[in-house]
Structures
1.
Amino acid sequence: GIGEIEKFYIRCHKEASNYKFIPKNKIIKDKLAAFEWEFSFISNMLYAKGKKVEIDGCGFLRLNNDKIIYYRDYSDSINFLLQGNVPF
């Protein structure tokens, strides 16, 4: 529910700092758009405290009247887990 979503985002902000998001290589055609991105932060997580974590990904959007009506992104999740020393 909404409460659990809120707890998730609060936890994310406690477990990282110095967020940096860089969009790259965008393509826009008609009502569709796609772009690659880089995301990094300094981890406060138990297994990677103080470590810079970098993640690459891509986003896909649908547009209507120049407004985003749909957004989905994908990232290299295994790379994230390995950098964060997350046991899996």
2.
Amino acid sequence: MAGVFPRSNYVVTARFVIRPDSVNKMRVITHDLTSTSRAEQGCIIYHFSESAEHEGIFSLYMIWRDETAYRNYAASPFVRAFNSILSQGMLTAPPVVETWRSLG
């Protein structure tokens, strides 16, 4: 079955659980990160969401043209700055980041 489904894009998801006292700050920094990230070369979809049922849970869904485009984005100064801010006590646990294989 190998080769039946083309690997057309690079899909990445991330889940962040934020401390209650940092939720508003997360809303602000995700807004800024989203507009900058969507302008990156190779970005197809970049979507941050906040749980409507559980305050402090944020989800990020990204589709990149390929792994190289994602790696360039992940190494950018603005992503490093975002990660630095998160690491200053905003998270209740490390983010869960997963890559996915596109099925078409």
3.
Amino acid sequence: MQKTLIALLLATAILMPARASAGVEQKMATVNVEKTLKDYWRTAVEEKRLKKAVEDVEKRIAGENEKQTERLTELQNMQKVLQNPNLNQAAHARHRQQFEVKKKAFEQNATTLNNWKASQNKDLSEKQRKAYAKIREEIQAVISAQAKKNGFTVVIDSKALLFSDATLDITNQVLAQLNVNDPGKVVAPKKK
């Protein structure tokens, strides 16, 4: 992130003198990208959707963990039977074989369960990454549109600056444009 900001600032510094010498006036604006992301209505919608997906996966994982715990209890009970000194040799061999089959199934299930959990977490991470990438694209498009509309040649994230004049900040304009279609703020027509 810092490298990107440094590169952006260097590019800005390099472009400004060239454009200034060409007679093009530079007009700069700032935007608080973090605030924009936080206050954009689609971010809340995606966070709610992702939270529901996480809860669903956690519920399924809890169910599978419970089944695995039941299998472990069954294995432990089988092991207790094997430790019974009154068991004859044939019964001991039969119980040992059943125990080994159950133990192998338990271990295979544990491996499968761990792989499934990792896959679910990877899937959730990918969904989150895609959702936020789309939101960032939308924000970037509105920032670009606002910049063009107001004649700005450079827009910098205000978090990257040590100081800037508050009049350069277009965060509220960007948010207003992004939140135009916020379904939570649309007022339903009154019935007569």
4.
Amino acid sequence: MQYTFRITLCLIFFVVLSCGNSKEETTNDQLFKLDLILSENFVKITVPEETDFTFPDSAAKKEPYKIEDFNADGKEDIMVYLGACGTGGCIYGLFLNQYDNYYKLAFMNYLKGAAFEKEKNGFLTIKSFEEVEAYNPSKLKVSVYKFDENHNKYKLDLTYVLKD
């Protein structure tokens, strides 16, 4: 009887300790920490320690591009300019606010002439416009990225050519 009591007590203790971890302790290693410094138009991004993530252009100043609720969860998310510019635009990263200053990277891709549209469900659609022929804006390739709730990320939804 005493042996069963000890096992039960140990199991209860284990469950209490497992559930007692705060959200920060259990998810910090998977999230980016963002500190927005508006006076300097700068976003300080701390990469999760246990990842091999690197920025595409480590010399680029990380600037806030758009601050808005992208995934309709009531929290302000941050799209950040990450540099690495070329003929297809520049790389931007979209960080979805999870809690406090901790964010999940939900999108990182080249955008050119970015535009945003609010859908009926409150999500923002991201559009990027790129010339099909260099220096000829009469034909634009439009890439449309939509929020995928199942994966908590933005994914390419469709591309099409817009003719003037």
